Amino acid sequence: MTTVLLADDQELVRAGFRLILELEGFDVVGEARDGAQALELARELEPDVVLMDVRMPGMDGIEATRRIGLAGLRSRVLVLTTFDMDEHVYDALRAGASGFLLKDAGRERLVDGVRTVADGESLFAPTVLQRLVDHYVARPPVGRVSGLDELSEREVEVLRLMGRGMSNSEIAGELVISLATVKTHVRHVLSKLGLRDRVQAVVLAYESGLVTPGA
Description:
The chain has about 220 residues and is an alpha/beta fold. It has 2 domains: about 5-135, 3-Layer(aba) Sandwich (Rossmann fold); about 140-205, Orthogonal Bundle (Arc Repressor Mutant, subunit A). The chain has 10 helices and 5 strands. It has a 5-stranded parallel β-sheet, with helices on both faces. The radius of gyration is 17 Å and the shape is globular. The relative contact order is 0.10.
């Protein structure tokens, strides 16, 4: 059973998330009212996913995310933000967040988001992904990027689809291959290119010209 830690300074918000997730079979193992408590509980409970609000008093969600990463915890952080234009989204990416959802995304999107991140994938609301691209790729493609020649033809195609924001399951459907095969390709792409995560892969796909804005 997937374990989840909720971090939000509003008790009613936490209660709503708990109800939704528990009805879907998740085990909500704890609740935190600020970043410091989220970090403490993440260390103690080591949940699969931390559902993290960005703006909290004291230690905010960005710093808590960064410290969870520095502590070497296996927990993956899914950040909730109220605004898709929130400048803190980019700070949280650098801090190691595994994905983002808007708080008004809805019940189904929330549940799918937690499952996606728990499965080791990254997740972005479409508007957040577009703003991420706009933020980091504000110049013409730089051409061939070091390491791309090391990729197989299939791995290049997988990188292109990652750049378009597709999940592993969506890539599997697009290429008509198994999910396990997609995961192997993604792992090879990240390893061969020396990328930390899927976020960097998205940026590289645009910077190299594999994907163009608006595609």
